[in-house]
Amino acid sequence: MAKKVVIISTSIRNGSNSEILAKETERGAKDSGHDVEFITLKNKTLNFCKGCLACQKLGHCVIDDDANEITEKIKNAEVVVWATPVYYYEMCGQMKTMIDRANPLFASDYKFREVYLITTSADGDDAVNTVISGLNGWIACFNGVKFCGYVSGGGIDSPSDVQNHKELLEKAYNLGKNI
Question: Tell me: domain 4-177, CATH 3.40.50.360, correct?
Answer without folding.
Answer: yes
